[in-house]
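Two proteins, back to back. First:
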Amino acid sequence: MSDWRVRAVRASKRPFSRSVVRPVDDQPAPEHSMDPRPDQPVEPVTLERSVVDAAVYRDGLRIEAPTDLADIYRRLPDRPGTMAWIGLFRPAEAQLLEAADRFDLHELAVEDAIVAHQRPKLERYGDTLFVVLRAARYLDEAEEVDFGEIHLFVGPDFVLTVRHSQAPDLSAVRRRLEGDPELLALGPEAVLYAVLDAVVDGYAPVIAGLQHDIDEIETEVFGGDPQVSRRIYELSREVIEFQRATRPLLEIMKSLEAGFGKYGTDEELQRYLRDVADHATYAAERVDGFRQMLQNILTVNATLVSQRQNEEMKQLAEAGHAQNDEIKKISSWAAILFAPTLIGTVYGMNFEKMPELRWAFGYPFAIGLMALVCTGLYLVFKKRDWL
């Protein structure tokens, strides 16, 4: 085995690799997520079922549909002017390594396709293009964005698509091209354009969904929803991830446009690719705007939360102040009422020998003393604003 093949096999054994040896009797499990992350295991699929579709085209027409990859490899070199388009879904390492031998694919590109989870990019290895795209779709029920990954090997007479997610539906792309033989007759670059167009068109529902979420968040922010901060954070993460999918796409389109003259790209195809570039630019600008809007919303939310906290503190302070006033009043009246009670208690002890006990003016004196003490306390508390 060559050195690069050894490296590719080793790379596939990294912790985040999803390449596995697939038993023949297993069937592909339905997907629930587009993101090829290690925490979302996928059941093995057979080698045959990994080939979603494979066909040989001439002059934009499908002339053959071989039953397996080996048949395509045998037929293609003997048919000048033809193009093979092979679509793989989460293929086994053996399939990619076999394709690398047949189509002379670069070892680094093959390793990226095996490991997956790559950033969007375009790299040229001789006369073969290696393109990585991040697809996206908006899940209405969960109100979140799901991301996927597509790898394309585009050579002079072949296109190999390695799909690591359900969306976009490349079978729809194939049907569209087969329904337009003039466009498909432009060769592998036409397939690259159609896949790019499908990925970029898939961003439109995502943009609409994110705009709807942001509108809802604005309403929740000004409505004082206590859970809105968490939703802002989660949506910000999705927007950042979406930005990582759209922003590199602009560089990919610039690189393709820079090679129009050098590689003799058809003029009509150039127009189509420029149209995709315009849509990609629009998507990237909207995503950049979403990120700025969320930052502004987060700032506004923090300000509103601070204002609400200040209002609550003010209300608590006012309530505490009012409570203190009530306590002062209660304490003052309790002290005033305590004075006559004390005097009455002293003279109610019934001792035989007490001062002024048999004095004729003892009773008026006691009453007057009580009134004097109460009046004095009232004036003192009134002066101190306790009453």
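And the second protein:
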Amino acid sequence: MSGPEVVRVAAPTERRNPSSYDLDLLPTRDVLRLINDADQTVPGAVAAVLDAVGACVDLAVDALRAGRRVHYFGAGTSGRVGVIDAAELPPTFGTPVDWFCPHLAGGRDAMWGAVEDAEDDIAGGALEARTCVQPGDLVVGLAASGRTPYVLSALRAARALGARTALVAADPDAAARDEVDLFIGLDTGPEVVTGSTRMKAASAQKLVLHAFSTTVMVRLGRVYSNLMIDLSATNAKLRGRLISILMEATGCPEADCTRALTGADGDLKTALVSLVSGAAVTEARAALARSHQQVREAIALLA
């Protein structure tokens, strides 16, 4: 009887890093320095793909404005990075919980530990895409090697459904680059520990996703200046932050900001437009509705 399938991956992340050949012989401080030196190359790898990330932002903004969604599909560390990014958006930017939908090979159990053969589940990736993805959605695949079967099958199924697709990989020459609408190929090179893509490859994916999703929120008007104006105030600290943000944005005293926030039923954006423009709360709310929740446009409408 034949054994389980064996695949040898030729991605850059599987190559040996010459600088760490003697890793197991080094003193602790030198191991840490070597890892830190390698980590410092990650931002440069991300900087090289900013144009592609920007194009991905535009696809996401178009999808969300049309009432569609953004999906992340990944396995192992890549999938967990997607889950973390998606989970942080509703409390930070007040987004609907289904705007960004993470899909992790192996399901919830895979968030806390390895699920055997989950990344090779071709049928599972395709089925999940067919179950959740709609035409006009944006589906972002996360695969350090650029070849993860679960991810690629989900992308193929999503594209067949009429969704736009993107792939984030730590292999600039991944064969799947021609199967998606947008390819983001990160040149992070060999890992300090050969094949351990939880290191540089995952760090690069995290930087890409945080830049991507944050920029989407900026483009959708959920940031004013550099302030979070749609955050969900779910605890005492965040309720205090609402007042602080309003004071920073308007230059008004705390008492005025508290009063405006109360009059706006806790809606920071409405209180902000009202204070800056001098308009009544009802007028501020109407201007925001006319400007698709863009604060600067709403203020201009009331000028």
